[in-house]
Amino acid sequence: MATPTFSEASLMLRENINDLIALAAVAEERSFTKAAARLNVSQSALSHTIKALEQRLGLRLLTRTTRSVAPTLEGEDLLATLNPCFEMIEARLRALDDAQDQPTGTVRIVSTDYAIETVLWPKLSPLLKQYPSINVELVMDYGFTDLASAQCDAGVRYGDSVSEGMIATRIGPDERMLCVGAPSYFEAAGVPQTPHDLSEHNCINLRLATHGALYAWEFEDAEGHEIRVKVSGQACFNTIGLVQHAALDGHGLALVPDRLAAPHLESGALQACLEEYCPYFPGFHLYYPSRQRPSSAFGAVLEALRERG
Fold it and tell me: By the 8 A CB rule, do 209 and 143 touch?
């Protein structure tokens, strides 16, 4: 079969583009009724469109039953090519539309409460005052959230835990976790000299949302070898702020970010120990899919969050 000329290919595309959009809608909704409502056409007209497309291609693209509609293997293969193209076109059209005016739109970011309070909100609060058409939704989650399933545009993690295939931009300085306690606790229980001494102390645990396990405290010796210690104690929380609060109340030792503990260390409400075993690591990074073409709102948020200096 001869390869179509450019004009023939262009004509073929014009004849099929609306039908392909209809196919993608039915496949996504798994229902002719829902897809017809979404496209603002009648169900019978939509059914006729799909049948005409199948006849032109000589392929069955959808399997229909009384209860559901699903793509055939040929339909899935076609949609695997179409959907990314449609997403790119829609994203580019949104970007072009946004570029005509001030940044507009909603940006959803998933993060821990600590990152929201210390990095995200302090940098985004002035941005929202500058651009009234930008909306920001900050979702608190300690798990390694899947951005697509959570319907989020981006997430925040420490730099050494960003997944492959993501674009990552530094938004915070390097940090370290410090072992801290109230002066009253150290007076009663003494000061641990090595991470292994923590087994003799009352420690405040953090339960991770990713798999429900307790966070193993991480340290490093002078040679750079990692030391992981499973601690125990009376209190356990699933947010780092409450862990520190319990330490302030004298319930035991806590491992918390140095910037979170800084004001309490300065005031004397907390004291640090084992500092020589507490290494620095890459700070917070904003990550998002590499295929994503940022909208003007997302671009403004990214620029506001970017770490400088």
Answer: yes
- Give the pLDDT of residue 309: 63
Residue identified by tokens 């990692």 is 226
Q: What φ, ψ does residue 151 adopt, rounded to 5°?
A: 55, 45
Q: What is the pLDDT of residues 55-65, one digit of tens each?
A: 888 888 888 87
Residue in 159, 277, 160 with CA at minimum distance from that of residue 225: 277
Amino acid at 177: M
The answer to whether the predicted template modeling score (pTM) of the entire model surpasses 0.85 is: no
| Helix (H) / strand (E) containing 24 | helix 6-29
What six digits make up the tokens of 232?
Answer: 């125990």
Distance CA 237, CA 249 (A): 14
| d(C-alpha 253, C-alpha 207), whole Å | 15
Q: Residue 261: which pLDDT band, with cuts at 50, 70 and 90?
A: very high
Q: Which two tokens stand for residue 45?
A: 């007209």
Phi, psi of 110 (to 5 degrees): -100, 135
Using pLDDT thresholds of 50, 70 and 90, give the confidence band for residue 6: very low
